[in-house]
């Protein structure tokens, strides 16, 4: 392990809570010291000791065209030279909105925000304001940012009323949050039979990326669409992760299911802080200033963030760019399965465009939180550290999805598969 990272982490812990600014970075579930990074280029990142890694974290998803892409860097620098923020409208905001609408035609109006959390928080408020109802339904193992009402862990029962998942969240805030198991449409039907006319929104990650990577069953999303149509609840797709990844047009294009509202984040900012909420004009126009549901932000639509997102999406939307990264992801997973097989290690993989998951399990079906929890966690920890040592950077948790960029090339593929072959041999 890197001495420099250990020194920097010891110092950081004196000043930053847990030495990090986002809990997931602290290596708590895999042990050891978080590796401090100093630069990235394309598919590769370099730590503070100069060691190189093929990066499958990509800042937890945003860097769809790789680190420090020249078009993104130029866009940010050129924009910064003319001022970093105005608190007044700029042309870039409309340009990004137009591009997002081209890629996701079901979105008629957009509001830019600064993070995925903000997008989901505003989606809940808007859905409640639009429907005049208070309840929201979410799924076990789905994460929608650190929004009080959505920080709810389902209990061990099949269907559970909301219990706060964190101290500091009042029970009164989560008592209107219902949870159901992911991919269990009958569970949702039962819940809606009882509470349907008081549910404002059904929020779902159409490709779950916060319990490893689990694409929803197509029938599950179609079922949710029907249930929402029947009950009058809004269907909200949290595409903060799956947007511009499951397909260029997001999971809604991949599945052909149209939500009422879509939460975006990550790729839409190309590595700068952006989130967005989009959807049907009739619903979106309930937001201030056209409507009564309050929403605002000092830095929302920030020029640097808009420029970074625009450069990223323009590049990604060129013919064959996203498709070739998807194909690369498929080759990565086939290569990993083959090498695991040779080493006698049961490995299941999931792919949704340029998102992926690997599961150490001999089960052939992982569709919900319990299935992920039943995978071999200890083997994942050894795999993670072996790959890290061998120069492959994976998220430090078996509950995170992996990400591929358009910069992942033949060299990155063979480096990763050679590393995996050696690591699997020792598992
Ligand atoms: N929704 C989903 C599906 C996410 O994956 C995340 C972040 N991992 C969020 C919301 C929250 O986004 P942010 O961290 O930008 O607030």
TrEMBL record:
Modified residues (N6-(pyridoxal phosphate)lysine): 266
Catalytic reaction equation(s): (S)-4-amino-5-oxopentanoate = 5-aminolevulinate
Keyword list, A-Z: Cytoplasm, Isomerase, Porphyrin biosynthesis, Pyridoxal phosphate
EC number: 5.4.3.8
Subcellular location: Cytoplasm
SUPFAM superfamilies: PLP-dependent transferases
Pathway assigned to this chain's UniProt record: Porphyrin-containing compound metabolism; protoporphyrin-IX biosynthesis; 5-aminolevulinate from L-glutamyl-tRNA(Glu): step 2/2
Protein name, UniProt field: Glutamate-1-semialdehyde 2,1-aminomutase
Gene, per the UniProt record: hemL
């Amino acid at each position: 392990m890197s001495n420099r990272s250990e020194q920097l982490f010891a110092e950081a812990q004196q000043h930053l809570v847990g030495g990090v600014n986002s809990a997931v970075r602290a290596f708590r579930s895999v042990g050891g010291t978080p590796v401090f990074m100093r630069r990235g280029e394309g598919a590769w990142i370099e730590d503070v000791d100069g060691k190189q890694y093929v990066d499958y974290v990509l800042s937890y998803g945003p860097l769809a065209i790789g680190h420090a892409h020249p078009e993104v860097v130029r866009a940010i620098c050129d924009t910064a030279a003319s001022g970093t923020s105005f608190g007044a409208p700029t042309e870039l905001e409309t340009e990004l909105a137009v591009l997002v609408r081209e890629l996701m035609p079901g979105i008629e109006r957009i509001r830019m925000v600064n993070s995925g959390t903000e997008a989901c928080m505003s989606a809940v408020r808007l859905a409640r304001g639009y429907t005049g109802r208070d309840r929201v339904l979410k799924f076990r193992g789905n994460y929608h940012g650190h929004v009080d009402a959505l920080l709810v862990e389902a209990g061990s029962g099949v269907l559970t009323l909301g219990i706060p998942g964190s101290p500091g969240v009042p029970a009164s805030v989560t008592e209107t949050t219902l949870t159901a198991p992911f991919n269990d449409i009958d569970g949702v039907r039962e819940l809606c039979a009882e509470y349907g006319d008081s549910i404002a929104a059904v929020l779902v990650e159409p490709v779950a990326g916060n319990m490893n990577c689990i694409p929803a069953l197509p029938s599950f999303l179609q079922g949710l669409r029907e249930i929402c149509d029947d009950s009058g609840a809004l269907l909200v797709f949290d595409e903060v992760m799956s947007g511009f990844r499951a397909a260029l047009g997001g999971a809604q294009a991949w599945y052909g299911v149209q939500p009422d509202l879509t939460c975006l984040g990550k790729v839409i900012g190309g590595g700068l802080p952006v989130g967005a909420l989009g959807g049907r004009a009739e619903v979106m126009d309930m937001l201030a200033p056209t409507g009564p549901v309050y929403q605002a932000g000092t830095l929302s639509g920030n020029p640097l963030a808009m420029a970074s997102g625009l450069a990223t999406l323009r590049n990604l939307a060129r013919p064959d760019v996203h498709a070739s990264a998807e194909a690369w992801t498929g080759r990565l997973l086939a290569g990993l399965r083959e090498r695991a097989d040779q080493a006698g290690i049961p490995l299941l993989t999931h792919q949704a465009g340029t998102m992926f998951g690997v599961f150490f399990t001999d089960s052939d079906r992982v569709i919900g939180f319990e299935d992920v929890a039943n995978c071999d966690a200890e083997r994942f920890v050894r795999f993670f550290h072996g790959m890290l040592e061998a120069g492959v950077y994976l998220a430090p948790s078996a509950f995170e999805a992996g990400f591929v960029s358009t910069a992942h090339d033949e060299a990155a593929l063979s480096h990763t598969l050679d590393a995996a072959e050696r690591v699997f041999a020792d598992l």
